[in-house]
């Protein structure tokens, strides 16, 4: 199968700069600088249908188009490599194999946006990825593909690495901007949106690693080619899916957008773990709603997954088997979100620990019928916050209430966890 | 007091930044590496180097998972307790670690060698359950492999720079 992001991968090691270049690497940058205007690059990304791979799924080219080009002062690009959504490890796998597609993608984005200085914000614990990037940046600079007068043109870009010290909220784009500025990383109230007022008050674009790493192929081979890679007519391009949980092989694979869930499980994952049966999964990282066996044939694309009440998110699929208690699973997820809440907005800071308490009680056999209504209410309260991570924190609970209310009630009626 | 060489390198880091406080996390990490944890003295030194008040540094120091405002052991043991590791059975590994080390979560071993803390997703969800000791990741764990990992880390002695990026 055609690979875009994993095309340059070598088993067990990082691709070298020379190998990447020999396989056509940095040709997209050459093409853009010599043949295309910045607007044409942006238009190609819009036409390709590329959508944000970090979780929100917004059109990347349109996001770029919101940046005003006529304001005085610098504009900024930030690559979000704060991959801390539980279940998600695709950006790490990509960067441990190949830092160059990202470097080339960032450079192309900077060309389109007129950005002179970009940052890569890397989470803690990704030292290998950071080392690959640091070396890659040096190699690109030495080859005249980064820094002053790229390929002897008038276009110049520098890229800096920022190594974080660990906190889930830093992945929220306005919190990330505060973190980069050296402020306490609470999200900012929007509007203004970063596109007009972001890093140090300047227009700023924040894009995920996988999103930016797709840009070189779009420019090299054209938006039509990229769009056509998807399995479904509305989809565009390929997607990295990283799978964990009750499957035979827990793998990170690149597959066409629109590949049905069943094919991912039965194909690269080698099916369910021997002796287990699929009960549910979380399709796009911790902050997405459960899917059930009736959803196994849903094409994994943004709108198709949204239509069945969940989100494609980051493409992190977490599989649960029959016999696994989803109240306990939801409790684990809520515990994570309660701990990682930045504490700024009351519904999130106070609501998540409260929900955790209620779920703990239910799981321990002390639940009451009215608890179900209490949980249902709290799903709504978390919408009244600055950032989208708070409603995201409630997504698993929302899914539990919609698909597994009977299981929740069983805990209450039996005064114990029915799976123990 | 920090050595002159460290002060110079921190000042160089600040000079490279667009605004001084942009370097705050790097400065805190380096000071923590020097002291073993971010001491009150280190907070004062960071404030001075960054041109911030102590309170502003405190505000940052208490936010991040990898900055320690209390004394910790020679090496940090982080155990991922997020959903994929939960699904892979991290709780058994945690119980085993607590028993072997004779500490509760957040505790430091009597010999000052290890501090055990849970942490959020390490981005290795296909390889759980897993822990990091210092800067080394140990994955696909069983209780036997935990024992081996502890043995290796005890023998290798001095602290690994888990809180200092090597990039």
Point out poorly predicted stretches of chain A: none
Overall number of domains of chain A: 3
CATH architecture of the largest domain in chain A: 3-Layer(aba) Sandwich
Distance between the first and last residues' Cα of chain A: 43 Å
Low-confidence stretches of chain B: 160-167
CATH-defined superfamily of the largest domain in chain B: Glutaredoxin
Spell the H/E element sequence of chain B: HHHHEHHEEEH
Biggest interface between chains: A-B, 58 and 42 residues
- What portion of residues of chain B belong to β-strands? 5-15%
Shape of chain B: elongated
How large a portion of the residues of chain A is in β-strands, by DSSP E? Answer: 5-15%
CATH uppermost class of the largest domain in chain A: Alpha Beta
Rg of chain A, please?
22 Å
The averaged pLDDT of chain B comes out at 93
Protein name (chain B): NADH-quinone oxidoreductase subunit E
Organism (chain B): Geomonas silvestris
Keywords (chain B): 2Fe-2S, Iron, Iron-sulfur, Metal-binding
InterPro entries (chain B): NuoE-like, NuoE_dom, NuoE_N, Thioredoxin-like_sf
Write the layout of secondary structure elements.
The complex is a heterodimer of chains A (420) and B (167).
Chain A: H1 17-22, H2 27-35, H3 38-48, H4 60-65, E1 76-81, H5 90-97, H6 100-113, E2 117-122, H7 127-142, E3 158-163, H8 173-180, E4 204-208, H9 209-221, H10 223-228, E5 238-245, E6 252-256, H11 261-266, E7 278-282, H12 302-307, E8 316-321, H13 326-340, H14 346-363, H15 370-381, H16 389-403, H17 405-414
Parallel strand pairs in A: 1-2, 1-4, 2-3, 5-8
Antiparallel strand pairs in A: 5-6, 7-8
Chain B: H1 4-16, H2 24-35, H3 40-50, H4 54-61, E1 75-80, H5 83-87, H6 90-101, E2 114-119, E3 131-133, E4 136-138, H7 143-155
Parallel strand pairs in B: 1-2
Antiparallel strand pairs in B: 1-3, 3-4
Binding site for [2Fe-2S] cluster (chain B): 80, 85, 121, 125
Protein name (chain B): NADH-quinone oxidoreductase subunit E
InterPro entries (chain B): NuoE-like (IPR002023), NuoE_dom (IPR042128), NuoE_N (IPR041921), Thioredoxin-like_sf (IPR036249)
């Amino acid at each position: 199968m055609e690979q875009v992001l994993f095309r340059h991968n070598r088993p067990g090691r990082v691709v070298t700069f020379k190998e990447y270049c020999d396989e056509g690497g940095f040709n997209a940058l050459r093409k853009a600088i010599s043949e295309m205007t910045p607007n044409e690059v942006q238009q190609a990304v819009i036409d390709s249908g590329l959508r944000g791979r970090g979780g929100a799924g917004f059109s990347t080219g349109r996001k770029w188009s919101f940046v005003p080009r006529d304001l005085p002062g610098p504009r900024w690009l930030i690559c979000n490599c704060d991959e801390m959504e539980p279940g998600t490890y695709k950006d790490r796998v990509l960067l441990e194999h190949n830092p160059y597609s990202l470097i080339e993608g960032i450079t192309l984005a900077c060309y389109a946006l007129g950005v002179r200085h970009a940052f890569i914000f890397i989470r803690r614990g990704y030292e290998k990825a950071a080392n690959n990037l640091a070396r890659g940046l040096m190699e690109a600079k030495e080859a005249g593909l980064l820094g002053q007068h790229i390929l002897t043109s008038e276009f110049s870009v520098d890229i800096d690495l920022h190594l974080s010290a660990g906190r889930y909220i830093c992945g929220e784009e306005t919190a990330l901007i505060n973190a980069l500025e050296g402020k306490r990383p609470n999200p900012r109230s929007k509007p203004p949106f970063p596109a007009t007022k972001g890093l140090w008050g300047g227009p700023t674009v924040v894009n995920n690693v996988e999103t930016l790493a797709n840009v070189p192929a779009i420019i090299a081979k054209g938006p039509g080619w990229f769009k056509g890679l998807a399995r479904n007519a509305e989809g565009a391009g390929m997607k990295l899916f990283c799978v964990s949980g009750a499957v035979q092989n827990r793998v990170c694979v690149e597959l066409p957008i629109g590949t049905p869930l069943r094919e991912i499980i039965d194909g690269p994952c080698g099916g369910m773990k021997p002796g287990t049966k699929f009960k549910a999964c979380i399709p796009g990282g911790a902050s997405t709603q459960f899917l059930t066996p009736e959803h196994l044939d849903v094409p994994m694309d943004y709108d198709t997954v949204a239509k069945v009440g969940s989100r494609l998110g980051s493409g992190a699929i977490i599989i649960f088997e029959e016999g696994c208690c989803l109240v306990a699973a939801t409790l684990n997820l809520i515990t994570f979100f309660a701990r990682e809440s930045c504490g700024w907005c009351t519904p999130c800071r106070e609501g998540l620990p409260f929900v955790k308490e209620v779920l703990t009680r239910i799981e321990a056999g002390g639940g009451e019928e009215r608890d179900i209504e209490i949980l249902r209410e709290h799903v709504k309260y978390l919408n009244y916050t600055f950032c989208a991570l708070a409603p995201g924190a409630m997504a698993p609970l929302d899914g539990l209430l919609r698909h597994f209310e009977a299981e929740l009630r069983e805990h209450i009626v039996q005064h114990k966890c029915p799976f123990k | 007091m920090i050595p002159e060489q460290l002060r110079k390198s921190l000042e160089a880091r600040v000079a490279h930044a667009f605004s001084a406080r942009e370097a705050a996390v790097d400065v805190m990490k380096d000071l923590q590496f020097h002291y073993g944890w971010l001491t009150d003295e280190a907070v004062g030194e960071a404030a001075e180097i960054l041109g911030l008040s102590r309170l502003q540094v405190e505000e940052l120091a208490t936010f991040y998972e990898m900055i320690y405002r209390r004394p910790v052991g020679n090496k940090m043991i982080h155990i991922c307790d997020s959903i994929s590791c939960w699904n892979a059975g991290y709780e058994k590994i945690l119980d085993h670690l607590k028993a072997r080390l004779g500490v509760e979560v957040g505790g430091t071993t009597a010999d000052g060698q290890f501090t055990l803390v849970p942490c959020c997703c390490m981005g290795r969800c296909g390889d759980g359950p897993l822990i990091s000791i210092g800067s080394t990741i140990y994955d696909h764990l069983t209780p036997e492999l935990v024992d081996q990992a502890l043995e290796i880390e005890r023998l290798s002695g001095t602290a690994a720079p888990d809180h200092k990026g090597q990039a």
